[in-house]
Fold:
Amino acid sequence: MKVLYVCFGISLLLLSCDKNEVGDISLGVFTTQDIKLNTMVDPIVTGVTCHVASIEADLSLSDPSDSSIACRQTGEISAAMIATIDKSKSGEIVFKKSKSIFFKSMKIRRVFDEQSQTLMYVSYSTKETSGSFKHSLSTVPLWGTQAYVMPETSEL
Structure:
């Protein structure tokens, strides 16, 4: 029985280890929930770094859905990078993390607003919680980068 507890403890430690984790804030002595701070570099637009704060419940089968995201330009953004991204209205998923054994996950999707020349990053939960799908938005304007293209103005 002791071996089972040790294996369970080691499994929990391995699950909580995240190479992208840059911070861990305890919510108190009498709770198993922490705020985890993770960093994510966009795999295509590598000049963008996003930081995501989310609640993780170490001894629970399901983490809360709340999250917050902040993305900033941290390097060069080239026209070649922008040329290769999905420019559809739904964009593309750039990051996904399981939040529950019950098929809930947190996803980050990149959407390009061509008119304002802005990358939008939306962090959202795939399961409804308390009547709402939790989500958060951050934007990275291309103004001042090599990728910026002057939007065409419509004449009246």
About this structure: The longest helix spans residues 2-16. Residues 2-17 have pLDDT under 50 and may be disordered. The helical segments are 2-16, 79-84.
